[in-house]
Request: fold
Amino acid sequence: MYENGTPFEPRIVDLSDEASRAAFLRLWPIGKFPVLRDEARDRLVPESSVIIEYLDRHYPGPAPLMPADPDLALKTRLADRFYDLYVHEPMQKIVGDRLRPASERDAFGVAQAKARLQTAYAMIDAEMATQMWAAGETFTLADCAAAPALFYGRLVLPFGDAHLNLARYFARLMDRPSFARAVAEAKPYFGLFPQEDAAA
Reply:
């Protein structure tokens, strides 16, 4: 929405507040963010990737986030899935483990997640040697998936000197005004991100 200047009314859901949580679950019983409520079209649209395609189709802006070319669109969707499944998901596994009681932690699962992240980082690094953005030379839906995944991924497993192309790509994402704005708005919540404890 920031990328295209799409007008919207944000609603913050506080899952620790019973009334806020209950209202959100009435809207979307899965209880997962984000969800778009389009009053004009009487539609409820969950999931980031679907929301972006929906907005691209029904409320297009100056920067299309899904290529019109079918092959580029397929490449974009693949990159979107890649960042969600192979960067974001293992990052969440590591973070989720930090939230568990020490007696319930899954060291084996965390090691697997870190190995998957390392593999994903190497693949991204190789791609970014020859392209600017996640699906080629244009900022797309895939970069919208990559930005938060890499933002938090680097906190649980830094990119390191072996992934300089990845680091440069991440710097481009951080410099993107739309993502920089989203990061600035999220700063008050950074303290909720569980840091690795000394025993981990």
